[in-house]
Amino acid sequence: xxxxxxxxxxxxxxxxxxxxxxxxxxxxxxxxxxxxxxxxxxxxxxxxxxxxxxxxxxxxxxxxxxxxxxxxxxxxxxxxxxxxxxxxxxxxxxxxxxxxxxxxxxxxxxxxxxxxxxxxxxxxxxxxxxxxxxxxxxxxxxxxxxxxxxxxxxxxxxxxxxxxxxxxxxxxxxxxxxxxxxxxxxxxxxxxxxxxxxxxxxxxxxxxxxxxxxxxxxxxxxxxxxxxxxxxxxxxxxxxxxxxxxxxxxxxxxxxxxxxxxxxxxxxxxxxxxxxxxxxxxxxxxxxxxxxxxxxxx
Length: 298
Description:
Layout lengths: L3 H31 L2 H27 L13 H30 L7 H29 L2 H30 L2 H30 L6 H13 L5 E10 L2 E10 L5 H18 L3 E9 L11
Parallel strand pairs: 2-3
Antiparallel strand pairs: 1-2
Helix pairs in contact: 1-2, 1-4, 2-3, 2-5, 2-6, 3-5, 3-6, 4-5, 5-6
């Protein structure tokens, strides 16, 4: 892992907390002035954003801790735990917002000073868009699950802020408070949908889901490319934080000398390492044609 990747990850977590704090202040003032339920929904979401971003900050810090005697595979799954926590925050904010919408539908309330709310929504859109662009860059460089979950969270916020701005404008223009409540309900449903996506990705990592088929096919192709590899089996993969783990058996001519078989194994491992530089690879050499217990799937 290059030295700048941990710095990028830490910078992304600090940026997300800073954006959340700025928006909490602006949206609190806007809600008190406008009494808009959609602005309240956005304020609640930003408050949960801060808690979620704090969890991400702590998780990334833990995930970057080197492996130790008690955690010899490292601490990378802290990122997936943070993603799962974020999914909970997002789902909770969506559920709470639906309850608020229900109350507002039963007791409609006129939106006031909608121009203030629209201005704050525009500020939120600019800050959130800038943050998502930066997070997207960091995720592409690092593959961080926690920051990817945070990015997914803020992408839902971006849609939410656009929706709130439109709702405030229309509710004020047409003097129809139900527009405000209706848009808030759509935002709530969008938040719950986003929570499912974030949670599913985190669970995949916690449950050691295999790498994507394209990566697995690439590993198989690299291993079989060596002219002396006759077959491979028992390929197993998983990921944890920034690290991928790859295990496989290669089958060689049983008459080869042990030293030569070892050299071939090192060559294949080096080729896979070149394609997956952040992976830890465990490669076992077997004699071709010898029956042995296998895992039962490719």
